[in-house]
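Q&A log
Question type: sequence-to-structure
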Amino acid sequence: MPKGPTKRRPQTTARLLAAAQETFAERGFYGSSIEVICERAGLTRGAFYSNFRTKEELFFALFDLHAQRVVDRLSAAVDELDAAEDPVRAVLRRMSALDEAERRWYLLSTEFTLHAIRHPATARSLAEHDRRLREEIVRLLGRLFDRLGRRPTVDLDSLARLTTAVHEGSLAQSLVEPDRLAPEELAVTYLPLLVEAVSEPAATGRRTGS
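Response status: OK
Response body:
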């Protein structure tokens, strides 16, 4: 491949991702056409298909970018545990932080999840991306328990699924009733109790789970 296109490819990909983020936010996944995304990016359909095969593949590239931001944010929160007065709630507040970008992503990812449920092949792809993100969350949960001096007594993959479900369910309710429920309220109130219930002091006791 010529050197010119190779050097331009990352810039082209970045422009498509930025345009897709804006277009998906405005029109949703179904309402966003490849043509509109390309027009917003100032690129041709040929440029799109040299980077992505489908609109779904473009979504998954955005998923991976968002997943990395989530991991970076939570990793930073775990790193700061020693300086936090209430370590678990500090992490949960960071996890539940809601800004406009997070709100847009939630709306898009919820719509895409419904799309995936209707299309088994897409659901399998989404499950694989979710699995990779969950592996990072499991790693961070392990670090969290270590920093707290506690040993988990449950499977951390299942715990990661549960905490994700609480986070996403709380966010949905908060977006519907923003004046009644803060995005972090349920997680900050109840997940510390869960952390305590599914772990034991690392120096004593006998582990009862895997």
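Response note: The first helix runs from residue 3 to 31.
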